[in-house]
Design a protein that fits this description.
By secondary structure, the chain is α/β, with parallel strands linked by helices. The chain contains eleven helices and eight strands. The strands form two sheets. It has a six-stranded parallel β-sheet, sandwiched between helices. α1 packs across α2, α1 runs antiparallel to α4 and α2 crosses α3. The longest helix has 20 residues.
């Protein structure tokens, strides 16, 4: 275990299931599937909506494999993969159209702020502690996440996204970039996120303290590529408890 600095000189924070929550993942999948079916139909290839949804789901599984290997896939990769599976040429206009539909799926069905997250950010700002978002983008790219944060009036001092930095968590680049931006040494900083494999292991690898946020998703899954002792220095179930935890 690493000692949590009280107070820290910087706090880095995950996005999904930590600051923001996706309100209707199934609805986003339906919209993405409908966009794929419509595009295929216009290109002379009929596919039922349910089959299109299943194809999007399969592309997500492929994304997860790439993500765990530290490689980018994203909405463009998913679009190319789906079109290839349907035997359609992955021409730029088609890829761009489908990629945008995949990218905006989560935003179109709605996002919400995790209870207490806005107040916790304000407490950090009030204490003059620099904050940085460290976000893996998946099918929801950085520009969409920025729009969601703007819509919900969530402000962080810095933001780092895997599709911009070029490597996801738990790999070091985003953590190191955040430390450089905030001017904090690793032992002076703490990262907050919900996943053991990416947030906890990534923070530990960077020499930072780790707090696992379990208020939305209590990550009991122990990935095969994690050591048995990969657990955070503290588990946070309510954002309201953060000031006491950090000595603010």
């Amino acid at each position: 275990m690493t000692a949590i600095p009280r107070p820290p000189r910087a706090v880095t924070i995950d996005c999904w299931s930590t600051l923001l929550r996706k309100l209707d993942s199934r609805g986003a999948l339906r919209q993405r599937g409908a966009a794929l079916a419509d595009l295929a139909r216009r290109r002379g290839r009929e596919i039922a909506p349910q089959a299109a949804m299943e194809l999007i789901d399969r592309s997500w599984a492929f994304h997860l494999d790439e993500w765990r290997g530290g490689r980018a896939f994203g909405p463009e990769g998913a679009a190319r993969w789906c079109l290839h599976e349907l035997g359609l040429a992955a021409a730029p206009p088609d890829v761009d159209e489908l990629a945008e539909a995949i990218a905006t799926g989560t935003l179109s069905v709605g996002t919400g702020v995790v209870d207490g997250a806005a107040e916790a950010l304000e407490a950090l700002h009030h204490a003059s502690i620099p904050t940085a978002l460290i976000c893996d983008t998946g099918f929801t790219p950085s520009w969409v996440v920025r729009e969601a944060l703007r819509m919900h009036h969530l402000r962080l001092d810095h933001s780092f996204f895997s599709d911009e930095v070029g490597a996801p968590k738990p790999y070091p680049p985003m953590f190191l970039a955040a430390l450089e931006a905030t001017g904090a040494e690793p032992a002076e900083a703490v990262h907050i996120g919900d996943l053991r494999r990416t947030d906890v292991a990534g923070a530990r690898a960077a020499g930072m303290a780790a707090i696992r946020f379990a208020g939305v998703h209590d990550d009991g899954w122990m990935p095969e590529d994690c050591k048995p002792d990969v657990e955070a220095d503290a588990v946070l179930y309510r954002w309201a408890d953060l000031p006491d935890l950090l000595g603010l």
